[in-house]
Amino acid sequence: xxxxxxxxxxxxxxxxxxxxxxxxxxxxxxxxxxxxxxxxxxxxxxxxxxxxxxxxxxxxxxxxxxxxxxxxxxxxxxxxxxxxxxxxxxxxxxxxxxxxxxxxxxxxxxxxxxxxxxxxxxxxxxxxxxxxxxxxxxxxxxxxxxxxxxxxxxxxxxxxxxxxxxxxxxxxxxxxxxxxxxxxxxxxxxxxxxxxxxxxxxxxxxxxxxxxx
Length: 213
What we know:
- By secondary structure, the protein is of the alpha/beta class.
- The protein has helices at residues 12-23, 57-62, 73-79, 120-129, 145-148, 163-167, 187-192, 194-212; strands at 4-9, 39-41, 47-52, 68-72, 84-88, 94-100, 113-117, 134-138, 154-159, 171-179, 181-185.
């Protein structure tokens, strides 16, 4: 039987996902050994796990290279790929926010609001809903520098503890949405491999719900 392929975002989300799969009865010991390999298997060789950049998970799922994936809601919103979002897994919690200098809130008079973010689509859609004209400045790292050095008026980014904002005298001005890890499935796989995928996703969901109670 062909292995089910599961795409995981490298880093903390993958670690949490592996913990969840173990609670579901999958022996993930081989995945916990330090290695540079990007393709690994569970101990029973029933599942193939691929480790990719977080922003690439929806692409692997949409293209059918992977059947199932775990990815942050922020990535799903930004990438807007054609996949099934099956469940909120609860971990990786943070917020998508607009941040900047507190004294600037409501006081920016530029006709075009300058917004620095790696989440270009999220930022553009958020301000479009408000009828605000924006100049989106794409930054891939240290987004907080935007307002600090005058590159942008505000930033749109995910916020966990808020310590980086505080260290740079910035504050959350608006919350766009809450972010957590999501379970996603390829649409074709869900049809053609339903008898394999549905029991697994049901077990994952039941395990998550049991942990919440």
